Amino acid sequence: MENLQLLWMGLETACSLPNLISAIFGAIIGLVVGAMPGIGSLSGVALLLPLTFKMNPTTAIIGLAALYYSNMYGGSFSAILLNIPGDSPAVMTALDGYPLARSGRAGAALSTAICSSFIGGTIGIIILTISGPILAKWGLAFGPAELTLLILFAMTSIGWLLGENPSAGLVATAIGVMLATIGVDRCLGQERFSFGSVNLFSGVSFIPLVIGMFGFSQVIDMVVNRITYSNTEIQKVTLKQSMLKGKELKGITPTAIRTGLIGTIVGVMPGAGATAASFISYIMEKRINKNREQIGKGALEGVAAAEAANNAAAAGAFAPLLTLGIPGGGTTAVLLGGLMMWGLRPGPLLFKENPDFVWGLISSMYIGNIICLLISFACIPLMMKVVKVPSAVMVPVISVVCVIGTYTVNNNMFDVYLMIVMGILAYFMKIAKIPAAPLLLAFVLTPMFESYVRQAFDISDGSFGIFVGSNISKTLLALTVLFCLAPVVMGFIKKEKTSVDSAAIEN
User: Fold this and answer.
1) What is the CB-side half-sphere exposure of residue 478 using CA atoms within 13 A?
2) Residue 434 has what DSSP assignment?
């Protein structure tokens, strides 16, 4: 009840004209930044932060927060229409969104992404409102050992992420792990697999990898199979036709709610972030959804899972930031720096000493989420023009976007060459029917896994006992073993059933 009163008080603060303008401005910038490959919320917030130092702290943080979570909306546009994820959390969106766009359902894919983003974001904000401090403390229960086992659980899920071809998943995972270990060892400071190249000392950058594997590989495919793309008939789609039908909305809502809850929990964990939330939620949905056979090939549920999770994680990341002063990722770390420069110290006392600021921010997230929903839907007619552009025009346009998006990250031509190599690799993987999703999952999780393993062993003086030292660890370990054995058991049951059926037919 007290929280509701404080929320109402914060709503009055959030609805003041300067704060509303700040939220709208942040939402628009976030959508644009999210749709532009290679920039991302971290760069967007970092670039905008210096402009807010002379503003009222509440007004400033409302605008920056709106930029952060609206970036998750924007990332889906380029992922669905161009197969180029605008930001790393949108990687999983492209797996189903782009096939839907190529089959003439770009409007439905965009509407699904927008609706799911709104549902996931709303779930994250509601949980932040009700149980922010409690949730943050629960997230802190995940130490290095628990986070190691959580990542191990996600890694062992790669086999059934694909379902029909686990061996291809293992090959892709191995490539992802190898790419992730290039560069200087984070723990020991030793050079690994860089072959003397100074440009590889810092490892393979994520943005060139993603843009190459999703964007440039698509360019190669469009050039090689230009007849197929030129024969693809794109129908004119209006905003009304893009709206989801009742049956479709009913189908994606449970997915969005489930992955929204998962995304919020992952977002609370320090260092996890929206990317990990998107990957883990997509994997879980691929396993349990009744339409799981189509997820990865062009299913609305796949788009819903990825988008609901990354938006929920963006909201959940504010729980440890505000209540304990612990950022959940790079973007919230920049926001933490901004808060401290404004003279605000995040932590339990922040809720008591600056209730106007805290509850004004939380209330503004409800309003900002609605603003993002409306602006995103208003952009659909404009964005739909992209899918009607002929492939002869799209090839140079996508190529330029890939090069510019890659170069602007570090202003380094080596990243452009790396992006091209990754695009060629992804194209040959596609020919060999080796999917890119497990590679990206392994690439994202391997550095975190390596760091958490090292931290766990440092804490326990090299003892493996730390990995069974808590109930969370034991549960995650049991689930990992269970999911590793599940394909073997299911295969055995299927084989026995086939034998019984064959015997029955013969008799």
Assistant:
1) 7
2) -
State whether residue 192 is helix, strand or coil: strand
Residue 219 has a pLDDT of: 82
Token pair 């084989």: residue: 495
User: 192 forms bridges with which residues in the sheet?
Assistant: 183
How far is CA 206 from each of CA 85, 89, 114, 341, 430, rounded to the nearest angstrom?
12, 12, 25, 30, 20
Residue 50 phi/psi, 5-degree rounding, is -60, -25
The residue among 24, 66, 414, 383 whose CA lies nearest residue 239 is 383
* CA 332 – CA 252 distance, rounded (Å): 29
What is the per-residue DSSP string for 108-152? HHHHHHHHHHHHHHHHHHHHHHHHHHHHHHHHHT--HHHHHHHHH
38 and 84 Cβ atoms separated by less than 8 Å: no
Give CA–CA dist 194/196, Å, rounded: 5
Angle of CA points 132, 133, 135, to nearest 5°: 65
Non-local CB neighbours of 108 within 8 Å, separated by 6+ positions: 100, 242, 244, 248, 300
CB 467 within 8 A of CB 473: yes
Please state, as a whole number, how many other Cβ atoms lie within 10 Å of the Cβ of residue 105: 20
Strand, coil or helix: 146:
helix
**Is residue 96 a contact partner of residue 297, using CB atoms and an 8 Å limit?**
yes
- DSSP letter for 59, please: H
Q: Tell me how far apart the alpha carbons of residues 46 and 49 are, in angstroms, rounded to a whole number.
A: 5
| Contact by Cβ (8 Å): 184, 191 | yes
Q: What pLDDT digit, counting tens, does each position of 34-49 carry?
A: 776 656 666 667 667 7
The pLDDT tens digits for 416-425 are 999 899 989 9
What is the rounded CA–CA span in Å between residue 274 and residue 263? 7
Closest Cα partner for 89 from 441, 374, 379?
Answer: 441
Amino acid identity of 387? V
Q: Which of 137, 140, 146 is CA-nearest to residue 452?
A: 146
* Residue in the structure block whose two tokens are 């943005």: 207
Q: Using H for helix, E for strand and C for coil, what is the string for 284-325?
A: HHHHHCCCCCCCCCCCHHHHHHHHHHHHHHHHHCHHHHHHHC
Indicate the burial class of 138 (C-beta count within 10 angstroms; 0-12, 13-18, 19 or more).
middle
Model confidence, pTM: 0.69
